[in-house]
Amino acid sequence: MKLKEFLDEIINSDKFDWTYDDDLGRYNYINDIRISIVSDREPDESYENEWLNCYPDKKGYFNRYNLCFKGARIESFYGVAAVDGYRMIILSPIQ
After folding, report:
1. How far does CA 14 lie from the centroid of its chain?
2. What one-character DSSP code corresponds to residue 4?
3. Contact present, 60 and 54 (Cβ < 8 Å)
4. What predicted TM-score, i.e. pTM, was given to this entire model?
């Protein structure tokens, strides 16, 4: 599989195409079990922004996720924010 095919498969997937294993912090792609997204369990970077003020816990944290193929990390990204005491994980709004 080429890198573009790998990324396109993830980008064009639907949320129902994934299962989640909370013990491992891993999303498994059901259409191709070689593809997974793994949450990095290292301490997260704190994140501050005005839009977080609408939550009771105003601290946010960037989470790093690793795009994996056959267990090997292909790329990492930080575009996800844990908000309101980790009660919700959302894409960080574009500023």
Report:
1. 14
2. H
3. no
4. 0.76
For 16-46, how does the pLDDT look when each residue is reduced to its tens digit (9 = 90+)? 999 999 899 899 999 999 999 998 877 567 8
Quick one: 83 exposed, middle or buried, by C-beta within 10 A (0-12, 13-18, 19+)? buried
Q: Is the dihedral of CA 57, 62, 68, 71 positive or negative?
A: negative
Tokens of 24: 């491992």
Could you identify the residue written with the tokens 């989470």? Answer: 63
Cβ partners under 8 Å of residue 69, min gap 6: 1, 6, 34, 35
Cβ–Cβ under 8 Å, residues 61 and 45: yes
d(CA 61, CA 31): 30
| Tokens 């601290």, located at residue | 59
